Amino acid sequence: MAGASGGIEAVTARRLAQAGASVALPARRQGRLDALVTEIEASGGTAPAVLSYIADQTQAEVAVQMVVGRFGRIDILINNAGLMLIGPIVGADVEECERMLVVNVRGLLCITHAACRTC
């Protein structure tokens, strides 16, 4: 599950773990990631943290290899990492807009590519 440290991703990870799935949690925010792992494991689930920035191809590949090393395979990739800038485009910081595109598009491509290479 890419981007698992917050939002829809965290809710999905909790629900999948409650249903008995082992979920791997790649994300870049260590504190939030640790809290989610603790919560899922306290409920009897399996949820290893995979600290990574999936928009970096090398980190995406390392994350996938860590998951495959732990579970032997990836059955499902929920690729939902993303950023959303709130506010008007007028006066928006172009670098922040670029960061959003990098995570939302490049991140999707990098983690999907890495996961598909393991199939």
Automatic annotation (TrEMBL):
<dbReference type="Pfam" id="PF00106">
    <property type="entry name" value="adh_short"/>
</dbReference>
<protein>
    <recommendedName>
        <fullName>Short chain dehydrogenase</fullName>
    </recommendedName>
</protein>
<dbReference type="InterPro" id="IPR002347">
    <property type="entry name" value="SDR_fam"/>
</dbReference>
<dbReference type="InterPro" id="IPR036291">
    <property type="entry name" value="NAD(P)-bd_dom_sf"/>
</dbReference>
<dbReference type="InterPro" id="IPR003560">
    <property type="entry name" value="DHB_DH"/>
</dbReference>
<comment type="similarity">
    <text>Belongs to the short-chain dehydrogenases/reductases (SDR) family.</text>
</comment>
<keyword id="KW-0560">Oxidoreductase</keyword>
